[in-house]
Amino acid sequence: MAKAPKYVYYFGKGKSEGVASMKNLLGGKGANLADMASIGLPVPPGFTITTEVCTEFYKNNRKYPTGLKEQVLTNLAQIEKDMGKKFNDSKNPLLVSVRSGARVSMPGMMDTVLNLGLNDKTVEGLIAVSGDARFAYDSYRRFVQMYADVVLGVHTDYFEEALHAAKHETGVEEDTKLTADQLKTLVATYKAIVLKNLGKPFPEDAFEQLWGSVGAVFQSWMSERAIVYRRMGKIPEEWGTAVNVQAMVFGNAGEDCATGVAFTRNPSTGERKYYGEYLINAQGEDVVAGIRTPQPVTKISKKSADEVSLEEAMPKAYKELAQTFETLEKHYRDMQDIEFTIEHNRLFMLQTRNGKRTAAAAVRTAVEMVKEKLISKEEAIMRVDANSLNQLLHPSFDPKAKKSVIATGLPASPGAASGQIVFNAKDSVKWGEEGKATILVRQETSPEDIEGMVSSQGILTGRGGMTSHAAVVARGMGKTCVAGCSALLIDAKEKIVKTGGQILREGDWISINGSTGEVMLGKVDTVAASLTGEFGVFMKWVDELKKLGVRANADVPKDAEVAVGFGAQGIGLCRTEHMFFEGERITFFREMILAKDLAGRKAALEKLLPIQRADFEGLFLAMKGYPVTIRLLDPPLHEFLPHTDREQEDMARAMSVSKDEVRDKVDSLHELNPMLGHRGCRLGITYPEIYDMQVQAIIEAAVNLNKKGAKVVPEIMIPLVGTVKELTILKENAKRVIAEVLKAQGVKKLDYLIGTMIEIPRAALIADQLGAEADFFSFGTNDLTQMTFGYSRDDSGVFLPAYVEQKILIDDPFQSIDQTGVGQLVQYGVERGRSVNPKLKVGICGEHGGEPTSVKFCHKMGLNYVSCSPYRVPIARLAAAQAAVEESMAAKKAANTKSAKAPKAAAKTVKGKPAAKAKAAPKKAPAKVVVSKAAKAGKAAKGVKVKVAKAKLAKPVVKAAAKPVAKAAKAKRKAEMAMA
User: Fold this and answer.
1) Among 42, 387, 608, 751, which is least packed by CB within 10 angstroms?
2) Phi, psi at residue 558, to the nearest 5°?
3) By the 8 A CB rule, do 364 and 270 touch?
């Protein structure tokens, strides 16, 4: 019989079978426990059941693999030996904790069981060994409640109600004031609750408890809250979780015992100060659940004289803890999130992990660690999640605004949030779907609230500290959170909040400041973000490392100014249609649409010309010499006309025409499928006067500013091209207009570019023909995705979530570019376009331009730039830098691997015979494929490598298209182009 794989890894007593690099197998918690034990930190002994068991568990109809039981019992015996205690023993019992541990942190999303191994016999042994019946029964009642909730499925509210009743009957407010006898009675009450709800007694056998808990942890990997969290963080389901079984140490064994959570730096601000909370005579869940208000770890963190810090209460244990902070931060070279227990003044480390932090803290920590020479600039760049920068790019409360502060809590997660009060997660989700902004108000949050937390603008709790569930999860999400606001009396059943004589109800507006802890009535005015301080330094490093340009989509000077402030290097998409909807503009444009002949259309367009010219001058000035790509009119004309009877009547009255004339025009422009209808370049072909006016306005604006000393090189983009003939006709029209303007202005020469938008699959397939005519390509990935998939972006919300959930698609293709489908067209278009035009400038201007994985894909494709909304420019800049760092790291790794596999330079000869040829290393498929010599040469001139990840993308169908066109094929190509 084959030997079972190794499913269990031991740690403790300065020895470990695992190492920190084994996170994929042991999970983050298990790998770090093993690592801490191996470097001599005080870690209670235990073992980790690997993530592979979780995978097997779900593959095998939720059954454990063969051999697991024997390995668990062997390692349990080793814990017994190291601790000098026996599991399920009535004299000197070993108790253990059973905790989850995925390869990435998922705080509060999976289950834990503490004090496992207690029953009516072992509790007597614990009393005998500890000499403290109160401690033993406190541990027992905790265990019964936790096990019943996590493993048996009896809701914890039943036990909380019983605990509340017990305290009420005895006249005490805190759990710690209950006596041993009262706790013993409570244990019996808890067991009666289990029997009543399940029809069977609470399990007494410790081994049954152990396997029940291990199974519950694995089951929690597929709990609704864990699934929601994974979806939010894009954590693959197949990763699974590990299970950690560890000897219990007790923070609830008396007044010289404590438990706490701490960070080596402030996770909200990144400040280089220890930051944490603890409770005397408590266990870990008391701190994170917000059941009792914790105390600060350090004296400097005290907010009132009534608080007693750990530094003051237990100076010896605190000193050891502070030394451990320094050891761990230097060892992992990152801010650490630590859980600890102090048992009779002796420190034990229960966990360390890279601490979840706000974007502001991530940036500050990264910059300061570079200055402290802990990490390099490249490592600093990789430490900050690009999407998290969103937290820093939106407004904060205006310090000059009028504020009505009604309460102050703990500043648990920074930011400014305003919304309507809701009291439960379901309402938060429902109101969010209705487009309402909400603040989720809870006494304290639990993992079941995760969806409500996601859908809200901010979270406000009445209880809990800076390391409570609400605080930790909010920081990880980038949500504003004020925790532990004890001045609020929250009644979730009646849906009211009382404070200072005021009553707030569901639906009332409040604002919360997660940086100060303030809670304010109503909406509070905000101010724009700025890229200063550590953020400015960090983004300077980003720009030093990135190769990909980042532009913005902007239609008005105000947006362009915002974009420049956020570091945009130009405008990649100006949607000129947005310039026609305001004031008299829409009237002039409707005059053009209603005109009965060319002369009438031109007369209306003459009124729009100076307005358009001024628009473009404003954009050019705002961009301060950076390139501006202007897309000529794209949407169909019917979008500019009203569709209701009343609106048509108003239009007819305003334009002094009959209602029937307006209705007839609307009817004549009606289309069954407007997206594929009379729009884009098709408008330019049938109504060339529209594009002529726009080109004239663009060139006149450029000439005017160039005469004033500004350097403007306009980029004119023709949309929705599907044949080369469309492009050639419209390009020649544009050149004719440009020549006329330059002659009229007395200008001999003006630099400009004329390019096209690749948003139709056919355009990507004939990109070599288009590339021969265009100066640049801009991939409009929104429409390219719609046309490639055959999905309507406006209607796909009905089915796309189900497609992602059922893994038909990995991601929503309108949020993250579909690399294996749409991405193939992008790659193909780049290769074919540059095969005939090595200097072809290429970018994308769809919404994907600000999404990090899509930006990294564009870097691999060798694009010149991405373009996105102004507020996503810093995100795209960081993603571009990370793509460059990843590429550099991969190249170094490949070089090291090649060097390690290289044959020895010389071999010994035998009796004068030539040395035998060394065996060549086995050939591997290259990691990357060079696009083409021509393309490479074109990009080299701009300092950007053009390489494509072969592992992810199939080869183009027509290899020859990626090579320069042979002279012998020119005649054939001319014929093809004419037909196209």
Assistant:
1) 751
2) -60, -45
3) yes
DSSP 759-770: -SHHHHHTHHHH
Q: What is the pLDDT of residues 4-27, one digit of tens each?
A: 899 999 999 878 999 999 999 999
**The length of the chain, given as a count of residues:** 980
Is the pTM higher than 0.85? The answer reads no
Tokens of 548: 């990909």
d(CA 902, CA 887): 22
Q: What is the mean pLDDT of the chain?
A: 88
pLDDT over 90 percentage in the chain: 65
Structure tokens at 50: 């690997």
H-helix or E-strand containing 498? strand 496-499
φ/ψ of residue 922, rounded to 5:
-55, 140
| Residues 707-719, mean pLDDT to the nearest whole number | 95
Q: How far apart are CA 419 and CA 412, in angstroms?
A: 18
Tokens of 503: 């009553």
- Rounded Cα distance, 340 and 284, in Å: 8
Rounded to 5°, angle at Cα 490 from 495 and 268: 120
Q: Which residue has the tokens 């699974």?
A: 240
Element (H, E) at 259: strand 258-263
**Rounded mean pLDDT of 357-385?**
94
The DSSP secondary-structure symbol of 184 reads: H
| Bridge-based pairing state of the strands 628-631 and 571-575 | parallel
Convert the pLDDT of each residue in 249-291 to its tens digit.
Answer: 999 999 999 999 999 999 988 999 999 999 999 987 777 666 6
d(CA 3, CA 613): 79
Q: Residue 675 burial (CB < 10 Å; 0-12/13-18/19+)?
A: middle
Active site residues: 469, 845
- Please report the DSSP string for 60-94 in residue order: TTS-PPTTHHHHHHHHHHHHHHHHT-EET-SSSEE
Q: What is the maximal distance between C-alpha atoms in the chain?
A: 109
Greater model confidence, 447 or 516: 516
On whether the CB atoms of residues 4 and 67 are closer than 8 A, the answer is yes
pLDDT exceeds 70 at position 904: no
Residues 6+ apart with CB under 8 A from 702: 616, 620, 712, 713, 714, 750, 752
E strand residue ranges, 741-823 = 753-758, 776-779
Taking the C-alpha atoms of residue 49 and residue 920, their distance in angstroms, rounded to an integer, is 41
Q: pLDDT digit string (tens) for 724-755? A: 999 999 999 999 999 999 999 999 999 999 99
Is the Cα torsion angle 17, 23, 26, 27 positive or negative in sign?
A: positive
Determine whether 852 is exposed, middle or buried from the number of CB atoms within 10 Å of its CB (0-12, 13-18, 19+): buried
Residue whose pair of structure tokens reads 């009675």 in the numeric block = 185
- Which residues have a Cβ under 8 Å from the Cβ of 803 and sit 6 or more positions away? 809
C-alpha pair distances (Å), 387 with each of 199, 454, 727, 871, 878: 49, 15, 37, 11, 9
Band of residue 299 on the pLDDT scale cut at 50, 70, 90: very high
